[in-house]
Amino acid sequence: MAPYDVLFALSSQGICFKSFWQVLITGGRRMKITTVVNGQTHESDVEPRLLLVQYLREDLRLTGTHIGCETSLCGACTELVNGKSVKSCTMLAVQADGAEITTIEGLAKDGELDPTQEGFWEEHGLQCGFCTPGMIISSYQLLQRNSSPSEAEIRHALEGNLCRCTGYQHIVNAVQYAAQKMQ
């Protein structure tokens, strides 16, 4: 990918250019980053070109995040970065320097599933499970903003997440279950 293609991809995501220019300036040398992932602080030396999804899966061994299309179309790699839903296959790890990141592993507390996770289990909102982590993270973010979403609002919030196995109705039911449980 040419630098201008990367610049365009980053700008279309609304991502800060500071890290992009750091990549160009460092000439590919490793960079120190500090992240807070699921409440734990991590200091790492990473390649400037390392994607956030690779950092989470390979460096931190948080394999609940899935790599699907690597083009931001499927949403399987969706994470929360500073509370905002981000497709981690289109964000560089260096751009997450100083960020607070929540992955699918970070939702369960003290061995108890988050209501969003429980909803997917109880309402059969998964089949093969590949899209499930991204679906749950997107659903979780929706419920943080809107504790009682309509079916249309749920479907809209999940537009960036693709499931090739279900007809989405069980996923919508799962989010509605979670919303009721959180009330």
Automatic annotation (TrEMBL):
It comes from the Bacteria. One of its GO terms (molecular function) is 2 iron, 2 sulfur cluster binding. SUPFAM superfamilies: 2Fe-2S ferredoxin-like (SSF54292), CO dehydrogenase ISP C-domain like (SSF47741). Keywords: 2Fe-2S, Iron, Iron-sulfur, Metal-binding, Oxidoreductase. InterPro entries: 2Fe-2S-bd, 2Fe-2S-bd_dom_sf, 2Fe-2S_ferredoxin-like_sf, 2Fe-2S_ferredoxin-type, Beta-grasp_dom_sf, Diverse_Oxidoreductases. The keyword DNA repair does not apply. PROSITE patterns: 2FE2S_FER_2. Residues 31-107 form the 2Fe-2S ferredoxin-type domain. This is Carbon monoxide dehydrogenase. It comes from Candidatus Entotheonella gemina. The lineage of its organism: Bacteria, Pseudomonadati, Nitrospinota/Tectimicrobiota group, Candidatus Tectimicrobiota, Candidatus Entotheonellia.
